[in-house]
Sequence to fold (181 residues):
Amino acid sequence: MGYSLSESQLLEIVSKIKALADKQKKVFKEDVVAIANDVTRQLSNAVQRIKLEEVKIITGNKTKPFAEVKVFVDGIEKSAKSEGVGPVDAVSKAINSIFPSNLKLKEYNLKAITGGTDALADVIVRIEDNNGKVFTAEAIDEDILMASALALVKGYNIALTEKGAGQKMTPETSNLNGKKK
Fold:
């Protein structure tokens, strides 16, 4: 497939494939390629200023979708809650509310890697700053909501790293105050 992998990347790919096989019994070539692409496109620890800690979602046919997220930004815990028209919208709004208002979700795309209800979800987001610069991120997970949250966090990591390489997110530049981890 043409990948040049470090030992840690190879171990992570194998681990994710095994975990997927344990859950869905059959792993397709498309799944393996998607997992390998996801692992090789991960951001370095130096670029990962934002780490997704927890996502909680409540939804139902008689319940307004609600999400609560917790992230660490430059080591400071931040959390947010939001409602949405659906669970993905609620997660997106909660995550978006944590970050500077000059960054907005411009585009959201979801596709299943293979068919079936147990297919991997591939989410691509585009985040735009107030100057029109667009930052693209992609994440893959067995859960649509987690793939969405991971893609959003990855997109904000890319945007914040490219915009202000050494700039810390402070209570003045973010929408919420937080506590140090």
